[in-house]
Amino acid sequence: MSANFTVPARFGQPIKSAPQQIASAIKESIVDGTLAPGTRLPTEQELTELFGVSRPTLREALKELRAAQVLIAERGRNGGYRVAEFSPRSLAATVGEFVSLSIAARTTTYRQLFEVRLALEVLAAQSAARNRTDADLERLEAALPRPDVDSFEKLLRDDIGFHRAVADASHNPLIIAYIGASSIAFQRFSGLEESYSEGIVAHLDEVFAGVRDRDADRAGQAMDVHLRYFADFYGTADREHGAPPAR
Description:
- 62% of the residues lie in helices and 3% in strands.
- By secondary structure, the protein is mainly alpha-helical.
- The protein has two domains: 18-83, Arc Repressor Mutant, subunit A (Orthogonal Bundle), CATH 1.10.10; 88-234, Four Helix Bundle (Hemerythrin (Met), subunit A).
- A two-stranded antiparallel ribbon has the order 1-2.
- Helix 4 runs parallel beside helix 8.
- It is elongated.
């Protein structure tokens, strides 16, 4: 069923283009609860009449909202647009893409990414120690990277999987999303070499032990030490520009 959608009073003010105003109006209706996640929007014809705009203008607004993952388009006889479910995973993908592009364009440096990642990962380990469930602990133990895996690439993937499992155990959707985003960027720009295999897994067993024992200080300190190894590898303290070369 379509939402009982009405045009917000501020629509029509000549601050933005018409498509931008429509997109803003729809987003405001999501924020104020008029449009809940999963709600189907009125038809394009109904929306053009509500906003008093042409169909191409409306479609430009809907295209913007789809690109921002605010709306989902559905095909078929009963197709149309509905409000997206705002999950941590979808936010991670969007932010991760932005971070990757900004590093590639050198509008964000690897040092800046690492500073944020360090703070978030320590917070995630502390939060996981406080909030983890028994099921989280089982997943975390299963995700612990093994230094004797068949390939260096798999070791890198396992390391990222462990960090994501720690974030999941925090049960904080923003921590989950932003660590997921930093992991996406890290995968693309790590520049790590096979000779660094030992550092990739260093102290992760201590992170696990801290989470297992619900010792937030121990878990956070172990995560801090683990990530300082990466700072040494990258020379982050001395790095002035951008990321290591993409692998």
